[in-house]
Each structure stands twice: as structure tokens, then as C-alpha cells.
Amino acid sequence: MAVPSGSSPRFDDEEPVTVVLVRHGQTAMTVSRGYSGSSEPGPSLDEHGRRQAAAAATLVERVGRDLWGDVEYPSEVVASPMVRTQETAGVVAARLGLPVRVDAAFQEADFGQWQGLTADEIEDRWPGALEPWHTSGRVRPPDGESIADVGDRLRRGLDSLRDGGPRTVVVVSHAVAIRAALGVTMGADPGTWSQLRVAPASVSIVRLFADRRDEIAVAGAPSEGW
Description:
The structure is a single chain. This protein is of the alpha/beta class. The protein has a 6-stranded mixed beta sheet, sandwiched between helices. α2 packs across α3 and α6 crosses α7. It is globular and about 55 Å long.
């Protein structure tokens, strides 16, 4: 395939693993802005979230057809074990005619004792702790993960996909986890990852090469309105 203008320059014919990262659709916790991590399996998608999952499936099905022409059509779907990602992945996989494989490497951050709380509630109980969790990337909630911890886990997950050889893999995951995937791909400091917008049902694309000179092709494209 021809390499489109604006792609990362390469001086060889190496083919990458393309990872299409899809954030799950909206849930009640998305609306309430609660910190919904990996320590609890729920919640499920709400009605709007199910519509978003369908829109994401429509967008992903166009990858390798009429969008991002140097990317192969997806041949694999992987999802975090959370209910919301499994539901979203089921809609995407049905559109692609593929099964869903579960991989906990792509689950959301474990928010520990912050699980289910809003930012205001966290600030009330742990004054001054939430901002450095986002901005330093290395602060851990009580019994939880730092953003850097999530990055270490996502790096291992991406490397496991890299080892499988050139293809396109759809990974249905979460906001913090997708930011971490983009951050480790760029080699950026974990304290900057929260500056990436990853909306519900948005699509991001990273391309992983054996020499690790990887590319971010798309970051946070909305799935609705195409």
C-alpha cells in the first residue's frame, strides 16, 4: 500500500501491527463523572452508550476500506474484561464478523479507594491528592494504580500484539488506558497523558514496528457524526 502524506518517515519496507483503540460507550458513571476503574466489573452501557457502540462499529468497519488507506482491514478484536468494554466490543466484533478475545492488560486503571467517587468526593476525602495523580503520573490512589503503572501494563499489552506480526487489531478499552497506550507509543512523560482527550466511543490508532519507531496515526477521533 502507498504510504499517505504526513505519515512518519521510514526508510525500509517493514509492515507494522496497527492497533485501533476504541473507548467503550457511555455508562451512568460516565455521566456522573465518577472514577470507574477495573476493581468492579460494571457498569453496563446506557442507552446512549449502546448507540455510541454502534457508531464506533460503523467507523471501525471502514478502517482499511475507505478510511486510513494504508491500514489493513481488522482481523482481530481484543477487549478489556470490564462489562462496558465487553458490550462495546461485542457490537464492534459483530459488525466485523470476528470473535472477541479478552486481555486484562487493556483494562482501566485501578482507582483503589477512589473507585466510584467523583472528583469533588475524592478531594473532600483526600485533599490535594487527585491533581498530582493526573499531573505527575506517579502518584497512586490508596490501594490503586498510578498512571505510570497503567502505562507499564499497556506497554506489555502492546508488545504482546507487536509480537504477533503485521495485522490490524481492534482493542476496546478505557480512557486512562488508551491515554497510556498513546503516551507510551510517543515516549511521553506520564504526567502529560491526561492532556489527551479520549471521548466515549472515540477511535485512536497506533502503528507498532519491530524497531519500536512507532507512530500515532489517530488520537481520539469521535465515532459519531461521520
